[in-house]
């Protein structure tokens, strides 16, 4: 179950922009993060994701994840077996130029070494990738990650003059803590960030087109699409009163004329997730339970088979049979946790495991939950 899975995902959830950045189909390893949670959120995008304009802010970036996403995006210009590093490097630099255009200050964090208790999972994934590559044929549209992809990504960061830091171990916790300290969003595509108490922008919701919003007052504004190739601005939407004059703007050709306009800014269209979207306004699920929720779904530290008996004891309730089993399990665990504290829930889970395994499972549960609740942050001082 830890082997990479090749999946094709098409554009959906247009209102909230979920997956709307992909005018193409893309493939991704679904074993990252909390199992099944990304699919669950995507299937309920209207409920869990809010439209967002990304501009004038710091942005903490999951570097290893962005590296893969940008490689996938640039894949259309590559040969089936990859290796077109120049195309990939250009895609990285171009992405950070988009952020710079919108006055977004990127702070990139990269994974470091592997923790001992994750080595088994890492080894299994690497073995799966070797087996996957061995089966690929010339002309295949399957994605192969080239060996030097991450090295090229780091070099492109240097070229684009983007600040980055390599963590001692996995970067997820450091990313979440830094984002909370700076009160800014996280950019990634890892379901772990649906559990961390952060403002989270799933990368696939980011539209790689810069828009310019010109505001006359609180109710009247124009939205313009910036043509990056010709440096022109095209009016794509407007809500304005008769008093507001249209803005005449063309980059690179003299001064921009503005009349009766108080503010304008460039932004990237995307979707934003916050933890309140999952726990609900009625606080039916308190934030301190979310790490346990993620752990019970299964992650990189706890194998799902260990919790098999616990899953069998769950009563799903009224959920359509059309809903896939993993999503039904998510709904069931959410409902179950509403009636438990962290302590009582942990005790109930341990009671479903053989006595000789309880000590090991308890340490695994505590370790996994500690990762979600950790507040140590070396990068805060590093980035100044």
From TrEMBL:
It comes from the Eukaryota. Residues 32-126 form the XPG N-terminal domain. InterPro entries: Asteroid, PIN-like_dom_sf, XPG_DNA_repair_N. GO terms for molecular function: nuclease activity. Pfam families: XPG_N (PF00752). PANTHER family: ASTEROID PROTEIN (PTHR15665), PROTEIN ASTEROID HOMOLOG 1 (PTHR15665:SF1). Belongs to the asteroid family. This is Protein asteroid. It comes from Culex pipiens.
């Amino acid at each position: 179950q830890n082997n990479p899975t090749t999946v094709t995902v098409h554009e959906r959830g247009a209102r909230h922009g979920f997956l709307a950045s992909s005018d193409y189909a893309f493939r991704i390893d679904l074993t990252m993060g909390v199992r099944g949670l990304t699919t669950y959120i995507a299937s309920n995008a209207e409920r869990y994701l809010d439209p967002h304009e990304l501009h004038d802010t710091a942005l903490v970036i999951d570097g290893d994840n962005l590296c893969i996403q940008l490689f996938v995006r640039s894949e259309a210009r590559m040969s089936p077996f990859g290796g077109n590093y120049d195309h990939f490097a250009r895609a990285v630099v171009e992405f950070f130029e988009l952020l710079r255009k919108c006055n977004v200050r990127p702070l990139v964090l990269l994974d470091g070494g592997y923790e001992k208790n994750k080595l088994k999972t890492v080894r299994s994934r690497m073995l799966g990738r070797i087996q996957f590559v061995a089966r690929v044929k010339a002309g295949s549209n399957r994605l192969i990650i080239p060996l030097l992809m991450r090295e090229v990504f780091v070099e492109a960061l240097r070229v684009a003059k983007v600040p980055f830091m390599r963590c001692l171990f996995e970067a997820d916790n450091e990313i979440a803590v830094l984002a909370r300290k700076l009160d800014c969003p996280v950019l990634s595509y890892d379901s772990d960030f649906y559990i961390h108490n952060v403002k989270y922008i799933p990368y696939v919701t980011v539209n790689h087109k810069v828009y310019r919003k010109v505001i006359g007052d609180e109710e009247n504004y124009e939205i313009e699409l910036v043509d990056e190739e010709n440096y022109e601005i095209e009016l794509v939407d407007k809500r304005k009163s008769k008093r507001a004059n249209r803005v005449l703007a063309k980059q690179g050709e003299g001064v921009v004329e503005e009349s009766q306009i108080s503010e304008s800014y460039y932004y990237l269209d995307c979707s934003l997730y916050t933890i309140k979207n999952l726990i609900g306004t009625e606080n039916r699920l308190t934030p301190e339970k979310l790490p346990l929720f993620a752990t019970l779904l299964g992650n990189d530290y706890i194998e799902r088979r260990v919790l098999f008996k616990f899953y069998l004891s769950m009563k799903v309730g009224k959920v359509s049979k059309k809903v896939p089993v993993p999503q039904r399990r998510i709904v069931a665990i959410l409902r179950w946790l509403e009636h438990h504290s962290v302590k009582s829930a942990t005790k109930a889970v341990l009671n479903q495991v053989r006595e000789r395994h309880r000590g090991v499972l308890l340490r695994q549960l505590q370790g996994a939950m500690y990762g979600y609740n950790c507040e140590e942050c070396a990068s805060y001082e590093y980035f100044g």
